[in-house]
Write a structure and sequence with these properties.
The chain has 455 residues and is of the alpha+beta class. 61% of the residues lie in helices and 9% in strands. It is elongated, with a radius of gyration of 33 Å.
C-alpha cells in the first residue's frame, strides 16, 4: 500500500474522514444530550484533537497508525453513550448506522483514489474526496436518520431495543473485519461496504416498522380488552342502579306503613319509642353502592368499579375527577389508562398490611390538555433501574407500557417516581399539541410535575 507523502496530508485525511461523521452521529440526539450543547461541542473538539495528536505521534514513530482505529472506534462509541441521554439499545441501534455510513464513504473514495487515479489512499486528494462525498450525500442521510430516529424515539419496546441493535452490529462488524483497513482500495472491499449500506438501510426500514406494527397491534388488543372491561363495569353499575331503583320503589310502597307507625307514636306522646323506631328504620335503609365521580358515564363506571373494589379490599381511595364534557381524550383510551393505573395501584396496596391509600386526581387545562395523577402507597420501587424498567406490569395487558404509549399518542408524557413509600404516577395528554420540528417535547419542556407529591 502506498504511503502518503507527508505527515500533514495524513493528518488531514484522518480528520476529514472522522470528524464530520462523528458530528453526524449526534444529529438525531441533539435534543437528548446529558449536558449543554456548548459543553458537548467542546468535548467533541477536545476528543478530536487528542485523536489527531495520537495519530500524528504514531505516524511520526513509523507505527501502523491505521490499526489505532481499532482502539479509537470503541472509545468514540463509549464517549457517545456518555454524552447522550437515552435508552442504550436505541443509542447503539442508531450509532451503528453512522459506522456503516463512514465505511461506505471511505471505501468508495479509496477505490477511486487507489484503483482508478493511482493516488495515495490517505493523502490530500483522498481527504478532499471524503469531504465532497460526505457533503453530497449528507442531506439524504440526515433526512433518513432523522425520520428513522423519530420512529425509534416514539417506539417503546424495551425488550426489543436491548437486543435489536445486535443484528446491524454483527453485519457491520463482519464487513469491517474483512475489509480492514478501510483504505485498501479494492473493488471487493467497495462492493462489500456498498452492500452493507444497502443492508443497513433495509434492516432499519423493516425492523422499525415491524416493531411499530406489533406495538400498535398490542395497543389495539389492549383497547379491545379495555372496552370489554368497560362494558362489564358499566353493566355492574347498571345493575347497582336497577337495584337501587327497585329498593326505592319498595321503600315508597312501604312508606305509608311507616308513616302510620310514626303518627301513632306521635299522637300517643311516646317520643322514646318514636326515636327508637326512627333509629331502627335509618339503620335498615340500604346503602347505595353507586358513586358519581364525574359527568362522563364511561369514565365514571371505571372509577366507581375500582372504588368499590378498593372498599372491599380495605383500601382508602380518594378521587377528584372534575373533567368537562365532551372528554378531551377518547373514552376507550382514557378508560384503558385509568384501568391500568388503578389495577396496578390496588395490586401494590394489597402487599401492605396498613396505610393502604390511592389518590386519583384529574385536571383539565382549557379545551385541549388533560392531566392525571394516580398516587398510591408502595412498599418499594416497582422498577429496578429507573422508571423505564417497570416490573409491576398490569396483569391483563401492557400495563404501564400501554399507559406510556397512550400518553405519547396524545403528544404528552407519563412519569413515575417513587419516594417515601409512595409511587407518584403523572400523565399529561394534549389533543392539539404538535411535535416541535418533528420531535416530541423534551423533559424540560413539559408542564407536568410528578404527582401530587411534587406540588
Amino acid at each position: 500500500m502506498q504511503v502518503p507523502s507527508s505527515q500533514t496530508a495524513f493528518v488531514f485525511y484522518m480528520v476529514a474522514s472522522t470528524l464530520p461523521f462523528h458530528l453526524f452521529a449526534y444529529i438525531p440526539f441533539w435534543d437528548y444530550l446529558r449536558f449543554s450543547k456548548k459543553a458537548t461541542l467542546f468535548t467533541l473538539l477536545a476528543e478530536q484533537l487528542v485523536f489527531t495528536y495520537i495519530y500524528f505521534l504514531l505516524y511520526y514513530a513509523s507505527a501502523s497508525a491505521r490499526y489505532a482505529q481499532l482502539i479509537f472506534v470503541p472509545l468514540f462509541g463509549t464517549l457517545f453513550f456518555c454524552l447522550v441521554k437515552m435508552e442504550p439499545g436505541k443509542i447503539a441501534f442508531l450509532y451503528i448506522f453512522t459506522a456503516a455510513y463512514v465505511m461506505f464513504v471511505r471505501g468508495a473514495v479509496s477505490f477511486v483514489a487507489v484503483s482508478l487515479l493511482h493516488l495515495p489512499p490517505c493523502g490530500w486528494e483522498a481527504g478532499t474526496g471524503v469531504l465532497l462525498l460526505f457533503f453530497a450525500t449528507m442531506p439524504i442521510m440526515v433526512h433518513y436518520i432523522n425520520s428513522t430516529a423519530q420512529l425509534v424515539f416514539q417506539t417503546d419496546a424495551p425488550g426489543f431495543w436491548k437486543t435489536l441493535w445486535l443484528l446491524p452490529f454483527f453485519n457491520t462488524l463482519t464487513v469491517f473485519l474483512f475489509t480492514f483497513p478501510l483504505e485498501n482500495g479494492s473493488f471487493l472491499s467497495l462492493l462489500a461496504r456498498t452492500l452493507l449500506m444497502i443492508c443497513i438501510l433495509l434492516i432499519y426500514h423493516f425492523l422499525i416498522r415491524s416493531i411499530r406494527q406489533m406495538q400498535n397491534q398490542a395497543i389495539a388488543e389492549e383497547r379491545s380488552r379495555s372496552m370489554e372491561f368497560l362494558l362489564q363495569a358499566q353493566s355492574e353499575q347498571y345493575a347497582f342502579i336497577q337495584a337501587q331503583v327497585e329498593e326505592t320503589r319498595r321503600a315508597r310502597h312501604d312508606m305509608r306503613y311507616h308513616w302510620k307507625a310514626l303518627q301513632s307514636y306521635s299522637q300517643n306522646g311516646d317520643y322514646d319509642a318514636l326515636s327508637a323506631y326512627i333509629q331502627k328504620y335509618t339503620e335498615s335503609m340500604p346503602q347505595s353502592p353507586y358513586c358519581q365521580f364525574c359527568s362522563n358515564p364511561a369514565v365514571n363506571a371505571i372509577l366507581a368499579y375500582y372504588a368499590q373494589k378498593a372498599s372491599r379490599q380495605q383500601i382508602k381511595m380518594d378521587i377528584t375527577f372534575p373533567i368537562k364534557e365532551p372528554c378531551i381524550i377518547p373514552e376507550p383510551d382514557l378508560c384503558a389508562i385509568l384501568g391500568n393505573l388503578l389495577e396496578t395501584a390496588l395490586d401494590a396496596c394489597l402487599s401492605l398490611e396498613n396505610r393502604r391509600l390511592v389518590q386519583v386526581n384529574a385536571k383539565q387545562l382549557g379545551d385541549s390538555t388533560l392531566m392525571l395523577t394516580v398516587d398510591y402507597t408502595c412498599a418499594k420501587p416497582p422498577f429496578e433501574h429507573g422508571p423505564d424498567d417497570f416490573k409491576n406490569q398490569h396483569k391483563s395487558g401492557l400495563g404501564i407500557e400501554s399507559v406510556r404509549a397512550a400518553a405519547k399518542r396524545y403528544h404528552g408524557d407519563a412519569r413515575f417516581e417513587w419516594r417515601d413509600g409512595m409511587l407518584f404516577a403523572s400523565i399529561m395528554m394534549n389533543r392539539k399539541m404538535e411535535y416541535r420540528n418533528g420531535h416530541r417535547p423534551k423533559d424540560g419542556e413539559n408542564i407536568m410535575e410528578s404527582g401530587t407529591g411534587g406540588k
